[in-house]
């Protein structure tokens, strides 16, 4: 199934941790916990230039991101697609994610000299489970 339903978007808007999976150069998978959100029909997360996720996505844009409702192990969404990397506006995105997850206006873990990048995932393949 492609596209995000309203219910899937609602789950993605909650401050639940997500995990993103990228493909390493050797073809093995790399999964990390990320903050995520939905923007229109895309799922977004943010990282810093030079980190593994960013390097992997530059070589192979295939990515999957999933969220599991911590209150219902059968309520989940998984989105797969080809990521687009966006430098413009990335600082505002990480600040928005910090507001969502920490309740603060500015991302407090910014490193000196760090350049942020937003990963945008079109919902090419979606698996949504409404829970029980």
From TrEMBL:
Keyword Phosphoprotein: no
Entry keywords, A to Z: Oxidoreductase
Protein name: Pyridoxamine 5'-phosphate oxidase N-terminal domain-containing protein
Annotated source species: Actinoallomurus vinaceus
InterPro entries to which the protein is assigned, alphabetical: F420-binding_dom_put, F420H2_bilvrd_red/Heme_oxyg, Pyridox_Oxase_N, Split_barrel_FMN-bd
Ranges of residues in domain Pyridoxamine 5'-phosphate oxidase N-terminal: 5-119
SUPFAM superfamilies: FMN-binding split barrel
Keyword Signal: no
